[in-house]
Amino acid sequence: MDHQLFNYGNRFIRGLFYFFFGLTTYFAITSANLVLGDNAKTGSETTVVTAIVLIVAITVLIVGFAYPQVSRVFKWLFVRHQAVTAGTLLLLTVAWQVVFVLCVHPAIGFDVRAIHEALIAPKNADMMSYFSQNSNNLPILLAQHWLATAFHTTSWLFFDWATLILTDLSAVFNILSVAVIDHRKVPTAMYIHAGWLALFPMIIVPYTDAWVLPFVSAYIFCYCVLSYAQWPWSLKLLAAVGLGLNVAAAYFMKPSAIVALIAIVLVELLQVVRREYWQGLTRRKGFIVVACLLVSGMAGGGAYVAGNHVLDTQSYIKINTARAIPAVHFMSMGISGDGGYNAKDALKMAQLPTKKSRADWSKKMYLKRLKQRGFWGYLAFLVKKQRNNSADGSFAWIKEGHFILHGTKPKGTGFARSIREFVYLYGTRLGDFRYLAQAWWIVLLVIIFFGWSNQHKFTQVLRLTIIGAFMFLLLFEGGRSRYLIQYLPAFLILGTLSFRRSLTILRQLFGWVKHPVQS
Q1: Residue 179 and residue 487: Cα distance in Å, rounded?
Q2: How many CB atoms lie within 10 A of CB 438?
Q3: Residues near 128 by Cβ (< 8 Å), separated by ≥ 6?
Q4: DSSP reduced 3-state for 424
Q5: Closest by CA position to 467, among listed 444, 484, 446
Q6: What are the pLDDT digits (tens) for 188-212?
Q7: Three-state DSSP state, 426
Q8: Model confidence pLDDT, tens digit, residues 107-146
Q9: Helices 48-66 + 68-75 axis angle, to 10
Q10: Most exposed residue of 308, 473, 476, 500, measured as fewest CB within 10 angstroms of its CB?
């Protein structure tokens, strides 16, 4: 019975994952970002840049397959010496990030603007009103205030550097997680992360999407150490402390970022029903497990209590907690329009005087909208929202209101102006960026999709994390793939671990090899 329950649980996770993930992969492949030339849907067009990239990529593939000597050179460079090549490529990518930030560091709008203005004028009435309603952004404001005080600057460039460092720190923890699981796959992790970082302009947006990444990656790494590393128990206790602290930090930065922790708990509980688990549990191992759980819980609980104390007693900006927007508001907003931000709902939250009236109105609107859609209409809406939530490989770049302040056209001259053309709303090469980012996203999704034979426990954790991400965004405010950024560590690590299996399956499908898939 225990064995059947365990197998059923694993099959359920795998089946649900491929249902959601199959939709996402299809939607990504059919995305408007892949239209060559004039693109009526996105309002931008690709240029000779995309054409050159495609010609080079196709030429390399043809030459690699047609000429054995060239194929051997590629294998020597990218496979036999992959550690050196991947490491060099990752370092070059970081250098590119530095150049990008130096060339492009404009003032950013939407919620990011409010945080930055509060660093300069915390006593402004509009800022106090904003943070009273959106107290979820208070932790990042206090973090940025601490940095601004420590380094004596509030410049956009400074906080872009901070965002770059935090994003790259996430990549480091992801690669370390892969090293714990299978050190032979570290070069693959570096290749995949280099592709991500090279096409991730969100490093110039100092907001919770990117700032939460290192905490998510860090607690996933700590879990890997606890569950898979053959390390001394003293180091595992240290990892347990790190797990608790980083979960708490992720929660304060972006509460929805603890989805991976929920996935870890559920998959570990699934292991407990197995008879083999209890048969292999020695007294010493059981003691270490209990000790790690206690240490992690105390560290996380202590950090949570301390964090709440800081928020409750902070005197940097005066807020009225009674003005806070209830969680049901985001559910109501998530079922309106395309499932994203609703300006009318946000205005209503500012107008209603009490927390109860705001919650009651949001519940009323949620039920009204649900009834209006009907059962089949709601299902159709969810499918459409899944596309909106996950198909865009640019992660909804430039799609927020007033994304880049003080102008939508790139200014300046020379090389810096050329770089800005890729990321400004009316830049001449915005279509090229969207095309290349979409192509990278599709490659990552396809790698993950064809890794279906992998039933490793950690793989199931990552799959369940992605399921949780999709379900959360379907139920709450979504409508754009920017909200997926907080879950990218799961995508990137799963893509790395799936790469070899997927490559073998793809080779078989296209007749490149004759031998069976290796599991």
Answers
A1: 20
A2: 22
A3: 122, 317, 318, 319, 320
A4: coil
A5: 484
A6: 999 999 999 999 999 999 999 999 9
A7: coil
A8: 999 999 999 999 999 999 999 999 999 999 999 999 999 9
A9: 110
A10: 308
Please name the residues in contact with 200: beta carbons below 8 A apart, sequence gap of 6 or more. 167, 395
CB contact at 8 A, 422 and 430 = yes
CA distance 188 to 203: 23
Handedness of CA 476, 477, 483, 486 (dihedral sign): negative
Q: Which two tokens stand for residue 399?
A: 């799609």
What DSSP assignment string belongs to 227-293? HH----HHHHHHHHHHHHHHHHHHHHH-GGGGHHHHHHHHHHHHHHT-HHHHHT--HHHHHHHHHHH
Give CA–CA dist 251/307, Å, rounded: 10
Tell me phi and psi for residue 378, to 5 degrees. -70, -40
The set of residues, in sequence order, having a beta carbon less than 8 Å from that of 511 and lying 6+ positions away, is: none
For residues 425 and 392, give the distance between their C-alpha atoms in angstroms, rounded to a whole number: 16
- DSSP string over 52-95: HHHHHHHHHHHHHHH-HHHHHHHHIIIIITHHHHHHHHHHHHHH
> Cβ of 330: how many Cβ atoms within 10 Å?
19
Which sequence spans correspond to the domains of the chain? 2-324+391-509
For tokens 């302009």, what's the residue?
Answer: 201
Burial 67-89 (b: 16+ CB within 10 A, else e): eeeeeeeeeeeeeeebeebbeeb
Closest CA to 73 of 64, 83, 84, 82: 64
Question: Mean pLDDT, to the nearest integer, of 294-319?
Answer: 95
Amino acid 36 reads L
Amino acid symbol at 131: F
- Return the amino acid letter for 433: F
Return d(Cα 208, Cα 137) in angstroms, integer.
8
CA 107, distance to chain mean position in Å, is 23
Rounded Cα distance, 46 and 386, in Å: 26
Whole-structure pTM value: 0.94
138, 132 contact by CB (below 8 A):
no
User: Locate tokens 């927020």: which residue?
Assistant: 400
Q: How far apart are CA 312 and CA 310, in angstroms?
A: 6
Copy the structure tokens of residue 56: 């080079």
C-alpha span between 517 and 507 (Å, rounded) = 10
Would you state the pLDDT for residue 280?
67
For residue 240 the two structure tokens come to 């347990």
Rounded Cα distance, 329 and 477, in Å: 9
First vs last C-alpha separation in the chain = 27
What would the DSSP string read from start to end of 198-219?
Answer: HT-GGGG--SHHHHTHHHHHHH
If we measure between CA atoms, which residue out of 400, 402, 390, 417 comes closest to residue 488? 390
Nearest to 34 by CA among 431, 485, 444: 431
Other residues' Cβ atoms within 10 Å of the Cβ of residue 510: 8
